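Chapter summary example.
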Amino acid sequence: MINRLTIRRALFTVVTIAMTIASPILQAEDTLKQRVNRLVQPYLDAEIVMGMTIGVLYDGKEGYLGYGLTKKAGGKKPDADTIYEIGSTSKVFTSALLADAVTQGHVRLDQPAGELLPDGVTMPSRDDKQITLQHLATHVSGLPRLPDNLKPSNPENPYADYEVKDLYAFLNSHNLGRVPGSRREYSNVGAGLLGQLLASQQKTTFERLLRQGIAGPLKLSSTTVSVDAKQSARMASPHMDGGVLTSNWDAPALAGAGTIKSTARDMLRFAKANLSPPANKLGEALELAWKVHQQPIGEGEPAMGLGWHLAGDGKTRLHNGQTGGYHSMFLVDRDHGASVVLLANTSTTDVDQLAQDIMQVLRGADVKPRMFEKQFKVQPEVLARYVGKYEFIPGIHLTVTADDGKMMVQLTGQPALRVYADSETAWHLRIVPAKLTFNVDDDGKCSSVELFQNGARQKAKRVE
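The structure predicted for these 464 residues follows.
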């Protein structure tokens, strides 16, 4: 909870299941719709998401189900054409653009990435080993998850003021901690750099490159980096854990890492192209990206294509993504001709299992609905005891509020987060592994709160 970027990495009113558009596969096989609904219902009952769209592709047919609301106040049920931020699932598109550039003869997978940098910018190396474009697409470049000169002015939109000049300054000053190709470390800065290099090599922007290379040819009309006025009307609002409205994300220098917006309909069109690549250069690129390019290095790691992670079966390709107010999960299985996409307007990794369970249903498995722990109910008069401001150190406060039977906490300079009761005095956060304990005297008055996180306990005295 103290680390704002940890919080933002990660993100609710009981709603009713409702199918929102005609879906041939789900109409033809009503039992499939019922099975998906049973899997979804616990997530709604536990208030995990504000709203989501699920798309399924099987046996050449596609279907869509919408659940919840596009926004808490005045929202509507999402559908196949509701637009969401897809977060790191963008990396699959960025890597497909790399594969396209390779098939077009513009670059090579083993090409040192530094060759595409402008004069005056130097790519870091280690032991004379250069970072290649393939290293960037498979997370073995040696670059860290985030650049060390990222200092967001707005924690709810942390990449918005990080510019290309900042990215280049990071490269010029960074010392690699390991030899490229020797170890896997998931790197947003590496994927963002890859998108920037591909765009600059073609003398264009990442958004135009996406449109020209993939979105245009595959008719993905709602897959974009920026949304126009008409698209904005179809975009679900972003929410954090607890249904708190938050901000959309911008990342001008790291667009390829996670700034793409899309719909379930577009994502299934992209899935179809990967299940059966077209007989052209783009099809060759999708096939190249699909192939395994990086075997596991450490225990428990997945093999990788370009951008794609391989599931435990060694065949299914998948990627998930998360921004401050959205989550996506995308799976493509060529053996069964199946795909599942789940797009949510709440930042929570909990729905990854739901998407995987639905894929198992498409394969014929009998999957039981997930069981969430029952929430401990706290009466409003008890919540009122804790409302106030608590000081850790001068200038760093925890503000506690309560609304509609839910309690929220907000650390100075960070967004408000919902906390969940384990008892009347013990609470936990879902978005980060942290716990709060309120210290109450015999008269029911709260004098302080203790935060337990990362093995450390910190006490804050009530000041208001």
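To summarize the output: Confidence is low (pLDDT under 50) at residues 1-24.
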